[in-house]
Amino acid sequence: MPAVSQLEKTKTRRHSGLVRVTHWLTFIAFVALLISGGEIVIPHPRFYWGEVGNVNTRPLFVLPIPASRDTVPTSYGYVLTDENGWGRNLHFEAAWVLVLAGVVYGIFGFWSGHFRKNLIPARRDWAWRAYRDRIAKYMHRERAELAEESTYNVLQRTAYVAVIFVLFPLIIWTGLAMSPAFTSAFPATAALLGGRQSARTIHFFVSWLLLLFLIVHVTMVARSGFWSRTRAMITGHTRASKEDR
Amino acid sequence: MNPISRRKLIYGGVAAAVGVGGLAVAERLATRYGLIPPDSGELYGAGGTLTYACQRLLTARTPAREFPRSMISKNPFANEVAPFKEEFKRLQAGGFRDWRLVVDGTVARPMSLSLADLRSLPIHSQITEVACEEGWSYIAEWIGTPLSGVLREVGVLPQSRYVVYYAIEKGLWESIDMADAMHPHTILTMGMNDADLPVPFGGPLRLRVPRQLGYKSLKYLTHITVTDDIKKFGSGKGSVDPDYGYSWYAGI
């Protein structure tokens, strides 16, 4: 019966429990990391390239913000209060949540085939043409195909793969490269990046790229139905909206 | 109740029991092997404890990063220090000849050492980086005698767990565990870049702990106390740092 099958189809499983739990843990941790990371910049809003950098060396660039230390020259006539204690503590606490959620998610992703099935672009899409076609669709504000209701298109897959396999590993690596104890065991983590200050600068830019991803991600979610997509990431199920059918 | 949910219930119960039991065993092992920092009860104690435990398992004996002479910073940044009190000024006027380092606590032979006494011990030099919690850093050559040599000299008793160290200014103190205290790169520093350690950089005596952030490398060192009970010191969190919201362990 067409009517019955239609009814069954309206509720499809979209996200596994593990993906949902790690998604929201990552979200909470990432917001905490952004806030605390912003705070950590304030004591010394100067960035350098190489191993060392301080107020006596030439910076790569300086953020036009006031500092929370009076030893740092800024164009402001005041010094902000020192909030680096909780800033650092929250940063590392949240980093642990992110790393542990990431490890669980990563093992699951390989083991269950989640990466292969849902995130790595299909073989036939490994071409500029596939990207161009999907961008054109976005440009023409075309409605997503039915297939995209239960899976991701090539652009989404590429964005997720870049975030999961490039940006998150890179931000964890550059973070560890700033640890004097960790680099005592693995000096190459800092040396390969050009030094401790280079690691700090890369860490700063990667955090902006991750924020950019978050903004685009939430925008796209809002565009395709904020509550239905958010509900899918909470309950695991998606209910196709009426106008799609 | 259908069989699937009963099976799930049993698995869940077993998993919960294993989890609780595992945590209890982990807690006992962590305490026994010194994987819990003194400030583990603070607001962010969970993350701090995980970090410290991992670093102790991973980096208890790894050498600090050392750099070639060509990488020594031309213009190192000394950071600001509190205004000096009368006692420091008096010692400075005397060329620090009367500067003393008292070493006591759980040791067999407490001692009071002059800078000349320290200079007569084996001298070690290292080119390591000072990395401040604020984000900046510099590299310098540091010259002095390893803390481990002094600790052997005074005869550290086997129950010792931490080394507490004080600056000349009252209320400024730090501590490190025995792994960092006995580490060959932890040195009682009296010289910097082929000269006496300048006062702004901590002269005449600074403890360099290069595998932790700069705030653990206390300037103007006058007193070292070895202890088996860190809770007896200050507010019991290992240093003054947790009182200001900072982490006791700064190896990160």
* Mean of pLDDT of chain A: 90
Structural class of chain A: mainly alpha
Which descriptor suits the 3D outline of chain B?
elongated
Q: What portion of residues of chain B belong to β-strands?
A: 15-25%
| C-alpha termini separation of chain B | 50 Å
**Main sheet of chain A?**
2 strands, antiparallel
Tell me the fraction of residues in β-strands of chain A, as a range.
under 5%
Order of helices and strands of chain A: HEHEEHHHHHHHHE
Task: Choose one word for the global shape of chain A.
Answer: elongated
Oligomeric status: heterodimer
Mean pLDDT of chain B, to the nearest integer, reads 94
Helix content of chain B: 25-40%
- The radius of gyration of chain A is 22 Å
- Going by CATH, the homologous superfamily of the domain at 63-231 in chain B would be Oxidoreductase, molybdopterin-binding domain
Report the biggest beta sheet of chain B as strand number plus sense, adding barrel if it closes.
5 strands, mixed
Largest interface, with Cβ-Cβ < 8 Å? A-B, 39 and 43 residues
Strand order of the largest sheet of chain A: 1-4
CATH domain fold name of the domain at 63-231 in chain B: Sulfite Oxidase, Chain A, domain 2
Q: Which spans of chain A have pLDDT < 50 for at least 5 consecutive residues? A: 1-9, 241-245
Overall radius of gyration of chain B:
22 Å
Order of helices and strands of chain B: HHHEEHEEHEEHEEEE
